[in-house]
Amino acid sequence: MAIEINGAASQAAPRPGQCLRTFLREQGNFGVKKGCDGGDCGACTVHVDGTPVHSCIYPAVRAEGKAVTTIEGLATAEGLHPVQEQFLEAQGFQCGFCTAGMMMTAATFDDEQRANLPRNLKGNLCRCTGYRSIADAVCGDSGHAHGPDAGAGVSGAGVSGTHDAGTDVSGAQAPAAVEAKSGQLGDNVPAPAGQAVVTGTARYTLDVPAEQLPGLLHLKLLRSPHAHARIVSIDKAAALAVPGVVAVFTHEDAPQQLFSTAQHEQYTDDPDDTRVLDNVVRFIGQRVAAVVAESVGAAEAGARALEVEYELLEAVFTPQDAILPGAPAIHGEKDAVSTRIARPMDNVVAEVHAELGSVADGFAAADFVHEHTYQTQRVQHVAMETHSSIAWVDEEGRLMVRSSSQVPFLVKRTLVRLFDLPQESVRVVAGRVGGGFGGKQEVLTEDLVALAALALKRPVQVEFTRTEQFTSTTTRHPFTIKLKAGANRDGYLTALQLDVLTNTGAYGNHAPGVMFHGCGESLAVYKCANKKVDAHAVYTNTVPAGAFRGYGLSQMIFAIESAIDELAVGIGMDPLEFRLKNMVRPGDHMLSTTPEPEEDVHYGSYGLDQCVALVRDALDRGKERYRAAGLDDLGPEWVTGEGAALSMIDTVPPRGHFAHTRVSLEADGRYAVDVGTAEFGNGTTTVHAQLAATALSTTAYNIQVRQSDTDLVEHDTGAFGSAGTVVAGKATLAAALELATRIQTVAASLTGVPLADCRLVDGAVECGDRTVPLKDIYDAGTLQGVRLATDGNWGGTPRSVAFNVHGFRVAVNTGTGELRILQSVQAADAGVVVNPRQCRGQIEGGIAQALGATLYEEVKVDGEGRVTTDILRQYHIPSFADVPRSEVYFATTNDSTGPLGAKSMSESPFNPVAPALANAIRNATGVRFGELPIARDKIYLALRDRTLIPN
Questions:
Q1: Helix boundaries (H) for 696-829
Q2: Phi/psi of residue 12, nearest 5 degrees
Q3: Which residues, at least 6 apart from 146, have a Cβ–Cβ distance to it below 8 Å?
Q4: HSE (CB half, 13 Å, CA atoms) of 189?
Q5: DSSP secondary-structure letter at 874?
Q6: Which residue, among 911, 705, 937, has the nearest Cα to 819 in the 3D structure?
Q7: pLDDT tens for residues 843-892?
């Protein structure tokens, strides 16, 4: 019997053992996504006879004779399904990769199920939003969908910290003072891709119809079972004998060029310690060989058939052991100068040693000294779309690559360098990307498919499994921070001393940058005459670390902000008052490891004092609301406490971050904006449209943004370091302003009216008492030979600083160790907020991700270097029930360096969350937790040992 798909009988039959997800995608239903292939994430949810199922674990054969509905079939001829309309109105998505599955689940809910979303959405995961907008969408509550204040006020958590429990405690705060106009700066312009996201027609990396890639091959990898070994030989014969296998690539077939998978504007920022395929493997999960076949199954079978002989080498798994004399040198054969590894024989990738003033004198002057070792763990990005790429050689002989990347232009540069190709012979495109968080600022798939496509002259595709994401891509860098800090009774810091050890894993991608950045703004935000830092980034035979939201700052801020609270307690001062006395103010030098401040970092605006006040006031109001509602007495076993932490971040990475944008008037009177930045839920597409619309006196609805294609514009460093708004946006604004002037000039010449009397308005130019439609301007420009397209460039300097302050009120059960978040609040200095609803969503998503990293997320590695948390059900990312509703407030500032006063606000919301929560738990229990994650069992054991829990 045929399977009915969206009302039509399928002409194909499933293969033996095929799951419904892959069958549906083969029939062109690309809205059905892969996030896990284990039934854990819900991105593949479809309806079978009206019942939602996870199609990745549903055998396709079971659907025979049944009606299957995918997201593409949810709407009717009359229009969108109500749940699609609600997700569109509430913008219940960011990257949108999980959205189809979320809607397919929610579309079946009745009122009773909607009343208990923590239970009924437990099978659908989102990594971007923090779930508040999803809750609003499912319940049909979009708030004030449009207008400058929409989404600025956020509901606080109920007693249990979940979305629907207890009394709702609300805070409201208007965004930065700006007179918002519809579709321009300050308005809640919907995401341009919203309609495509909710209908399942948004095209992510692998959403390419089969007819567009005739002869598509699939690549799978054999990965190392050993933590450290030399490959003696690889016998391909058995693999090549597998039906369907076309080719096998080993280190003998790959370029010998050393490079780094990390991608920066200056590739010399990272050590050249990696090969496409190496004859030495340095962690369990490293690539050994690539098998290319007609199907995924054949490629997997081919990989299993490979026979590899290894010579085992001594391995080392902790940075503490790796720097001991006599430890195995993981990259000892490499030249320090040419590879830019600080000390290869000592496993030290990079190091910094600095002292400002004299910490010895500072501690001598201190009335209280806090000394503690803080530790942060490996955390995985868990972007819902795994790493994937397709490569092919087009009819002109160009290498074409479609990749899930945050940095398509840097990927192109790396491929050119690796394969010794002319620049013009490579094109890289990123479709819509299903989440990034820094994990896709790497080359982890593109080099493989390029190698195969160039050799075979056929399209080649690779898609990582969720297990490969955990075992073979990158994680956040684990930090060990030995901290010593002093303060006097007057409430001033006298000394800060840190000994920092970071674990970069087997390769040094991002190791120097993460170490240096971590030791930067975390220290610079405080005035202290005596600071000392000794930091080392160290190789181990474990899964590599890389770029992760916060880029080293979150780890360091956890330690420093925890210490700030301990100093305040030690001298008997309120922790927020202590911060107010010691944090930098305009005019103060921002100093960390150098005696002079970064010459291009300025106070473009300053809202840290406002953020502290906003959080303090919100916590006070929340406490009073709980008291008035009778919810402050939880029982004799519960203790409550409050805590806060602050953070500062430079708005742009150092040493240049470049963007080129082109803005043009089209023949229909609308505008096109060509940008290089990728869209992966960061919202830059909307920001570009709003900035251009503001400059061109139109609305974002009249702007078409084309992006993330290396053929579109000259160069774009990429969407990382929170640079989408403040770098690429600055280039877009410059181009749009120049185009506005050019349009008015053409209008003046056409009408004979002085240029000063010509005013650009929506859809036209008003020249005195005459109104000239933009279509006529386009035609006149064509006749005059005037190019109505302008270019904008920005190089990322000067830079400003952005601030975030987070506060929590918590309750801890002294009998069980249970933690409840009673209130979560964050205040952000984002400058002039371009899109308040979108910015609010970025902050909420950062909070949710940080809560996971604070409370339970950990990539665990055993004593042999093997990742043991390699599927989602073993690695707990926040689900709907785990995340409280957070109050979000914006400081009122206007940045002198950002476009129209805006600042970055993508990474920074993550950074103060962990220390704020640790400080709240400390305030409640008296116990300082210095190691992340702060899991419930750790709380229980610590309280038991402090005799707060009876044995």
A1: 723, 729-751, 774-784
A2: -105, 160
A3: 182, 187, 188
A4: 32
A5: G
A6: 937
A7: 999 999 999 999 999 999 999 999 999 999 999 999 999 999 999 999 99
